[in-house]
Amino acid sequence: MSDQPSPVAFVVAYIVRDALPPSRADVATLFGTEMPRYGVATELVGQGGGQASAAPWPAGGMHVVGTQHSRFAGVCAPLWDLLGLLSSLRRGRPDCIQVRDKIASGLLGRLVAWLLHVPFIYWMSFPIVEGFEVRCDDIRRTRGGLNGRLLWAAHHLRARASRFVIYKWVLPGTRHIFVQSEAMADWLAAKGLPRARMTAVPMGVDARLFERTRIVPAADARLDGRRVVVYLGSVARARQSAFLLDVAEALRRAMPEVLLVIAGDAPSSDEMVWMRGSIGERGLEDHVLLTGWLPQARALGYAVRAEVGLSPIPRGTLFDVSSPTKLVEYLALGIPGVANDIPDQKLVIEQSGAGLCVPMEAGAFTAATLYLLNNRSAAQQCAERGPAYVASHRTYAILGRNVANTYKKILTEQG
């Protein structure tokens, strides 16, 4: 396919939750690179604070109002989004208004779309309301005293109001809903939303960035002579990241030369302190390497020195409807994956044959990892199957074509 963009056929005014400039591939790559190939331009609206380069948005315009670093960001975001949306309208009337993972701004987007007589589209990559409710439960369990009760009451009120707004006002008013996975589409359909108005867009990879021959392996002597296992991604209590240390302990007992590389950061400094402290308390300093945040190229340099990639994702409402990137990244790099049985990961393993799918239990993950480390023939077969599967199913070039065709259908049909 030509790298030259097609003439603009549709313009999407897109309010996003993540900080701008965008760094997530399902915004930066999908909308910044792939959509212009099909004539779909985007006017991004959101708050600043992203770590990505501040280069001009290549697919339309970027309207940054406010910052996510402000202590008032949560309260002010809808107003900032309105100002950003008004700024985007100065460049012309869009063909639709789309909102990603925002609730109050979702209501705003629906209202503006109604005023402009254009379709309103919602992009759900995460069950935000259910995330608020999990946060309430965490506060109830961990915070005591009057301050804890007041904090719980505030979060409870936010969760209750958000549930009413998103499921009664925002989603019922959409022309279409893009979701993270087929499991999420089924979950929303069970809530009464029309399944025919949903399109699943799972996480993928930029094929150029994950071409193994272009990646420079990490020159880190701590990996020399070790049987390296890798985990790409963030660590946090909510992700049950201590599970990785359970696996590392079991691997150490069975194969002392194993080194688990955790290439990622934590969402906060105290979470990183907790993870490093846990590694020390278990005496795993020689068997777990926690790198902290790395640029993608360096993180992939560690990954390509690994023999197995781990992708444990906790089961439950929040993650069962997700589409984790790390498993697809391992497969793209030719690294056999060991993943647990959330629906999207189970689907990828079954379709690709490029890894093993087991329950999220330390014994099961350990046994699967040791099988691949000890059975080079099976590991090689997985390594060969992974890139071919990703190339035919999970690159953003392929996902972009599906999304562009969906826009064409939505934006050319009569309301």
The CATH class label of the largest domain is Alpha Beta
Give the structural class. Answer: alpha/beta
Strand content: 15-25%
- Provide the spatial order of strands within the biggest beta sheet: 3-2-1-4-5-6-7
The CATH architecture classification of the largest domain is: 3-Layer(aba) Sandwich
Report low-confidence residues grouped into runs of 5 or more: none
CATH evolutionary superfamily of the largest domain = Glycogen Phosphorylase B
Mean pLDDT over the full residue set: 94
- How many beta-strand segments? 13
Query: Major β-sheet, in short?
Result: 7 strands, parallel
Number of domains: 2
Q: Helices and strands, in N-to-C order? A: EHEEHEHEHHEHEEHEHEHEHHEHEHHH
Distance between the termini: 32 Å
Named CATH topology of the largest domain: Rossmann fold
* Helix content percent band: 40-55%
Radius of gyration: 22 Å
Globular, elongated, flat, extended or rod-shaped: what is the shape? globular
Tally of DSSP helical segments: 15
SSE arrangement:
Elements: E1 10-15, H1 25-34, E2 40-48, E3 60-67, H2 73-89, E4 96-100, H3 104-116, E5 120-124, H4 128-142, H5 145-170, E6 176-179, H6 182-189, E7 198-200, E8 227-232, H7 242-254, E9 258-263, H8 269-281, E10 288-290, H9 296-303, E11 308-311, H10 317-320, H11 325-332, E12 337-339, H12 343-352, E13 355-357, H13 362-374, H14 376-393, H15 396-412
Parallel strand pairs: 1-2, 1-4, 2-3, 4-5, 5-6, 6-7, 8-9, 8-11, 9-10, 11-12, 12-13
Helix pairs in contact: 1-15, 3-5, 4-5, 7-13, 11-14
